[in-house]
Design a protein that fits this description.
Blueprint (H helix, E strand, L loop, with lengths): L11 E4 L5 H13 L7 E6 L4 H12 L2 E7 L5 E6 L6 H11 L5 E6 L2 E6 L2 E5 L14 H23 L4 E12 L2 H4 L10 E12 L3 H14 L1 H7 L3 E8 L1
């Protein structure tokens, strides 16, 4: 990729146009950064206003340096990035992981729907809670349960694989009920619409005995940010079963 005449110090240039960090810009930056040597510089051009806040945060998270930020012509803003050094990569990654903040952006798209953007991913989300099987998008409470089930599913597989146990099949079923759905619907005022409890059932086919499975599962629950966040307010009945 040729040098940009407006900044001859850059080793490479990428033009993000109107993309924000959650809808493809970071993917373009990673691709442009990959062939650079540690310490190499990349000039990022962007017309999206949110990049001014999100790009520096991403640089701090992954360890790249933001050397300079300048105004340019035609509504563009330029960001000069320096690729992180290999020797400092591990220490930087650990420190950034310790200080990391997760962030999502939700924009109302009409009716009872919103578009959520997370890094390079986007998905539609419906109303806070719904009892209609014909909804065009899952409700927010269903995404919450999905996050919980998905975190345990992938987390348990990862920890079992670290022990050398082969996982043949793994399924998680999450069930929950509200303390009082009528509060959410505006029919009653007494009580709370919060979840009363969550029931999790894990069905596992893996080359591991039941005692090991239960120990690894307990460790997965203990170290999972989703379960530990929910356990502060909601009772979770989680059981793992070999199949």
């Amino acid at each position: 990729m040729p040098d940009d005449p407006s900044d001859p110090t850059a080793d490479a240039v990428c033009d993000g146009g109107d993309l924000d960090c959650g809808s493809g810009l970071l993917l373009i930056i990673r691709s442009a950064m990959a062939p650079l040597q540690p310490g190499g510089t990349l000039l990022v051009k962007s017309r999206e206003s949110s990049v001014r806040e999100d790009l520096p945060a991403w640089c701090r998270m992954v360890g790249h340096g933001l050397l300079r930020e300048t105004e340019a012509d035609n509504g563009y803003r330029h960001f000069l990035l320096r690729k992180k050094d290999d020797d400092a990569e591990l220490a930087t990654d650990l420190e950034q992981a310790r200080r990391h903040h997760w962030q999502v952006r939700a924009r109302w798209t009409g009716g009872m729907q919103a578009k959520v953007t997370v890094r390079n991913h986007g998905f539609a989300i419906g109303q806070p809670a719904s009892f209609d099987t014909e909804d065009v998008a899952p409700s927010a409470i269903e995404f919450l349960l999905s996050a919980l089930a998905g975190a345990l599913c992938s987390g348990l597989q990862w920890r079992l694989s670290r022990l050398g146990a082969e996982v043949h099949n793994l399924e998680v079923v999450a069930k929950a009920k509200s303390q009082n759905n009528l509060v959410f619907l505006g029919v009653e005022d007494a009580g709370s619409p919060a979840l009363a409890d969550i029931e999790l059932s894990l069905y596992v086919a893996a080359d591991v005995d039941d005692e090991q499975l239960q120990a690894v599962f307990a460790e997965t629950v203990r170290r999972c940010p989703v379960t530990q966040s929910l356990l502060q307010t909601v009772a979770i009945d989680a059981r793992a079963r070999k199949v």
